[in-house]
């Protein structure tokens, strides 16, 4: 019985939506689904706050990259291991460098890893997923075989092999994370495209003489693109965490501060009661990862077309 | 004067949304006498479902809220009841049957266990007793071999059987009131007839009261004692069934009665609700003919000829996915369609009528056969030639919700076919044509920059029609194009299709499971059964002189649209 009830209320809210729309015909402003989704998102205070945090981190990262913030993170500003005070908000490290500047530089690294790895992963995942789902048959089988094989390689092994060729450093991290994180997106896009290609509106596009390209790019992909946004916001924080892990293991970022290297340093410092490097890096990481998680869930709720009159 | 089991007094329900407060039900009052059936009629969005959900107190809150009034069930006001108290009433004293049998049953549980569960919860029966009672109930609702079907999962049953299971579930605790929310809308006519008869029998047998919600007056003509008509959140008329049918007072009720195509009368167009709602205008009754007027079709002018068409869907099995069998969706069909003709294809779901339509447009791969369009065999056409031909042949789909791309504005949807076929040279010319098209299908120009989800079902279907017309086709397949619409909207769309046929000299294949609609719009009718056309004749002959047994069954199953007593008088 309980399943009936939830089914029913879904049904009803659908009906209500269509009713509200029909009642206001002619008077209300037109809304695209994207705008509609944003309005939904605005209702969710936690999501809005998360969005604010993400924007704040992005701004800090951009300003840092432009050299406005923390350009002189390498400068000695005080004594070694000064505790947090009004002068040094998060204290200093062994060389007397300001931990706040290091955290900010780490933010730049973290955000760039998230961004670049997504920019590598999205085109690969979207193209392969869409092609596999749309054409099916042997093309699908080849792509599925390819990504299952690929996803069975642990990214640490892949990173080590890339690091051997390109040398350790940020570029290897970008590539390794980008090349391993497209599989999830590819899977999701593939199954969604398979669902959409049999919808009547795609059939209608065939009936008016539309070719494969038009059907795929003009009709299907805009209808599955919300998946990219949802997936990216979740993948972003996975990339940030992965960078921290890799740098902690010493095969990630080299020669500049990142949250991972800071935590790595802190493991020796903790014994002497120096906790501020660890605190700075983990707090910074905690907030952005939490924000992306909340935002990802909220985006899913706001963008999922199942909750809209189909 | 019998006692009332349920009295609804001045009920108002509001929905609070960011855009403002919407009143879904506005100050309605009606009662359901003991042992009687009350029909609640209205179009979608009129508030009839909200009313029924309020009685069960299933309105999601927020945003919904019962703003005022009383719902007296055996004298007790349900509005004041706590959730816990309501739970004891739901499914026990008041039960509900939903429209969609496919989704109302839980797919991971056996059908029998789902009925037994209700008994275990409300009657505190032991598993064994509940099972015995379930078998008895399944027998009561006419499920063959209950002891076998008890262990069947929902996907192993047909739509009609699932609805029977739903009825058995609702009947399990012998409720005093049964609320049926469009229980037969999703079913084929023949199944609909059986389910209606079953519900009527059970209601008589257990002396139960029933609230039957539907958008189609003709369905309840036979079984309702009283009828309440809802229109735009208000209850506009509440009277005995006979009075509603013989002397409707409210213009909306009159419109509802008139807009349904009738098998005996042959109007040249249908009256719509709007005709009645307009104030002060004399209603012009369309001419009614004793016989269907037959168009003068030039017998030489064959537009489309289908020869021995077969469409099979392979069933793969075995380890290597070999083809082990074929589903013969279309099995050796041959028909001829003349220019300007409307061919109706009737049959129950799964008979292959939709596949036939799609095969003609080559949206499905064919197994064998020829399709001659103006004498040319299009099965031999290359992809490029086929694309050219698509300008001439169009299709309008059943589901107005899935046939328009939700991410495109109306102007983009209408412009797309023009772009593909190079109709119009620049943007302005095409937008002008879009405006013209919208005018033709009776929509406002303001629709251009909106998105499909902002329109009602009927409006969306008009947009689909406009899209099909955008490239000046000669031939259109209407695949159940009016089946998902309310009767009142159906009439408008049917009239529109007729007008357009007149104006643009179109040829239609009209696919539907609804015989009265097909009779109204078609010149010739083909009756399909398991992939074959079992009977083909003029519409008039099919209805007055059916030859095949199957056609006769179909015809007998159509709701007559008038109370039984009227027929005998």
Radius of gyration of chain A: 24 Å
Compute the number of structural domains of chain A.
Answer: 1
CATH fold-level topology of chain A: MetI-like fold
Of all chain pairs, the largest interface belongs to: A-B, 49 and 66 residues
Task: Report the major sheet of chain B.
Answer: 6 strands, mixed
In what range is the share of β-strand residues of chain B? 25-35%
Structure described in brief:
The complex is a heterodimer of chains A (310) and B (569). With 310 residues, chain A is mostly helical.
Overview features:
heterodimer; A: 310 residues; mainly alpha; MetI-like fold; 12 helices; elongated; disordered N terminus; B: 569 residues; alpha/beta; Rossmann fold; six-stranded mixed sheet; 22 helices; 36% helix; globular
Description:
The complex is a heterodimer of chains A (about 300) and B (about 575). Chain A has about 300 residues and is mainly α. Chain A has a single domain, classed as MetI-like fold (Orthogonal Bundle), CATH 1.10.3720. Chain A is built from twelve helices and no strands. The longest helix of chain A is centred in the middle third of the chain and has 37 residues, at about 100-135. Mean pLDDT of chain A is about 80; it is low at about 1-30. With about 575 residues, chain B is an alpha/beta fold. In chain B, about 35% of the residues lie in helices and about 25% in strands. Chain B contains 22 helices and 22 strands. In chain B, the strands form five sheets. Chain B has a six-stranded mixed beta sheet with strand order 6-7-8-3-9-10, with helices on both faces. In chain B, strands 18-19-20-15-21-22 form a six-stranded mixed beta sheet, with helices on both faces. In chain B, helix 4 (about 110-125) packs across helix 5 and helix 7 (about 160-170) runs parallel beside helix 8. At the A-B interface, helix 1, helix 2, helix 9 and helix 10 of A face helix 1, helix 4, strand 18, helix 15 and helix 17 of B.
